[in-house]
UniProtKB/TrEMBL annotation:
<dbReference type="InterPro" id="IPR029057">
    <property type="entry name" value="PRTase-like"/>
</dbReference>
<dbReference type="InterPro" id="IPR050408">
    <property type="entry name" value="HGPRT"/>
</dbReference>
<keyword id="KW-0963">Cytoplasm</keyword>
<keyword id="KW-0808">Transferase</keyword>
<comment type="pathway">
    <text>Purine metabolism; IMP biosynthesis via salvage pathway; IMP from hypoxanthine: step 1/1.</text>
</comment>
<comment type="function">
    <text>Purine salvage pathway enzyme that catalyzes the transfer of the ribosyl-5-phosphate group from 5-phospho-alpha-D-ribose 1-diphosphate (PRPP) to the N9 position of the 6-oxopurines hypoxanthine and guanine to form the corresponding ribonucleotides IMP (inosine 5'-monophosphate) and GMP (guanosine 5'-monophosphate), with the release of PPi.</text>
</comment>
<keyword id="KW-0547">Nucleotide-binding</keyword>
<comment type="similarity">
    <text>Belongs to the purine/pyrimidine phosphoribosyltransferase family.</text>
</comment>
<keyword id="KW-0328">Glycosyltransferase</keyword>
<comment type="pathway">
    <text>Purine metabolism; GMP biosynthesis via salvage pathway; GMP from guanine: step 1/1.</text>
</comment>
<dbReference type="Pfam" id="PF00156">
    <property type="entry name" value="Pribosyltran"/>
</dbReference>
<feature type="domain" description="Phosphoribosyltransferase">
    <location>
        <begin position="11"/>
        <end position="159"/>
    </location>
</feature>
<protein>
    <recommendedName>
        <fullName>Hypoxanthine phosphoribosyltransferase</fullName>
        <ecNumber>2.4.2.8</ecNumber>
    </recommendedName>
</protein>
<dbReference type="GO" id="GO:0016757">
    <property type="term" value="F:glycosyltransferase activity"/>
</dbReference>
<dbReference type="InterPro" id="IPR000836">
    <property type="entry name" value="PRTase_dom"/>
</dbReference>
<keyword id="KW-0660">Purine salvage</keyword>
<keyword id="KW-0479">Metal-binding</keyword>
């Protein structure tokens, strides 16, 4: 598995210290509120677990599964809901937890759905962001690291469902997906 990685971009330690910072800021901003924190499966499952431990205000969690990349390194452009939320978002302060924003298609689709369900507020926290790849305008409220334009894996992110268990984020060797 490690042989397939071209370069490590951020180590486990760097990621954990960034999550601590994000958690502190979110705790300040949501003081006195009880947000519904939504994990976008599958990619955000590790970040979600680490982040909620660093948020000190009361909160509820829920999970939604969407997919648009499948077995490819390019978005299909079609966001499929595989599992919807259990909770109702009406009159809730919603915080969406994402692992990565790339084209922006997944989140712009989700934000639209949650606003139509009458959430009081909808904010986004992403651990990784590739702003140069955007095809729709979208700026996260909280962001961990900006990444270059290369396909990355690890810390929840996959290629063809592999590599999610790597504790760091790294660039996948092109020969792995171009062969
Ligand atoms: O900004 P975008 O171009 O839409 O890309 C970002 C989305 O793509 C990935 O999900 P994917 O569809 O691969 O599903 P997964 O989380 O199950 O891997 C990632 O976890 C984000 O949800
Ligand atoms: Mg994926």
């Amino acid at each position: 598995m490690l042989n397939d990685i071209k370069e490590i971009l951020y180590s486990e330690e760097e990621i954990q210290s960034k999550i601590e910072e994000l958690g502190k800021q979110i705790s300040v901003d949501y003081e006195g509120k009880n947000p519904l924190v939504i994990c976008v499966l599958k990619g955000a499952f590790i970040f979600m677990g680490d982040l909620v431990k660093r948020i000190s205000v009361p909160l509820e969690t829920d999970f939604m599964a969407v997919s648009s990349y499948g077995q490819s390194t390019k978005s299909s452009g079609v966001v499929k809901i595989i599992k919807d939320l259990d909770a109702t978002v009406e009159n809730r302060d919603v915080l969406i937890v994402e692992d990565i924003i790339d084209s922006g298609l997944t989140l712009s689709y989700l934000i639209d759905i949650l606003k139509r369900r009458n959430a009081t507020s909808v904010k986004i926290v992403t651990l990784f962001d590739k702003p140069v790849r955007r095809t729709v305008e979208l700026v996260p409220d909280y962001s961990g690291f900006e990444l270059p334009d290369s396909f990355v894996v690890g810390y929840g992110l996959d290629y063809a469902e592999q590599y999610r268990n790597l504790p760091f984020i790294g660039v996948l060797k092109e020969e792995v997906y171009s062969s």
